TrEMBL record:
GO biological process, one term: sister chromatid cohesion
Similarity-based family: Belongs to the SCC3 family.
Single GO term (MF): chromatin binding
Gene name tied to this protein: Stag2_1
Domain SCD: 21-106
Tree of life domain: Eukaryota
UniProt protein name: STAG2 protein
Membrane spanning stretches: none
A Pfam family: HEAT_SCC3-SA
Amino acid sequence: QLQENQDEIENMMNAIFKGVFVHRYRDAIAEIRAICIEEIGIWMKMYSDAFLNDSYLKYVGWTMHDKQGEVRLKCLTALQGLYYNKELNSKLELFTSRFKDRIVSMTLDKEYDVAVQAIKLLTLVLQSSEEVLTAEDCENVYHLVYSAHRPVAVAAGEFLYKKLFSRRDAEDDGILKRRGRQSPNANLVKTLVFFFLESELHEHAAYLVDSMWDCATDLLKDWECMNSLLLEEPLNGEEPLTDRQESALIEIMLCTIRQAAECHPPVGRGTGKRVGS
């Protein structure tokens, strides 16, 4: 009898879904489309056994192409709620592979709020599975650390930090108390220098530092480590920094000191709305 009751309720839910949602998620009014997507995100979270599958997820995927920014935004926040729960990751694999390219392209959305949430969603995807995002996908997000719009840049900085800087080797735990050149931050500082040089935007060190300031403060303020990389001899088997790398490190170091002293973003970076050129 319990099974019969459950089947009956699910049939009613399906009837309501097909009678209401399937028509209204394409409503002429953007606000109604936004409500539909917001709600289906809640249903998937609350009752994932019934709703978290590709028959329902596809509606969110299709609506990511909506003309209105507020609707696209609801798609991304609904998906964030799902990707945040690691227990649901296995049920999202097919959706991720099918719609990942669209999410990556939304990091360049004309609406800044949408771009920020797209980057945050990709950061959650990254944490759920490293293999899903290709090197090209990641690079598309990395270069946004140089964006003139601060919220976009900060979100990209967090993505960059999670991908390149947040993993520590087990042996690092034993040297956490070491300082200067022997500290675990030494390799991370070098990674930052290599990234900066590879990105070939050498006049924008201040933008890179500002983007990562919130998530990597301890690393960016480890001036003792930066000094020792510049002044001390390399350890056994360690590659010395080239002149170009040392120059880049000095520039980054100056930007971190300025950021710490002045406590505001670099000139030319703001949080205003995008204005059509």
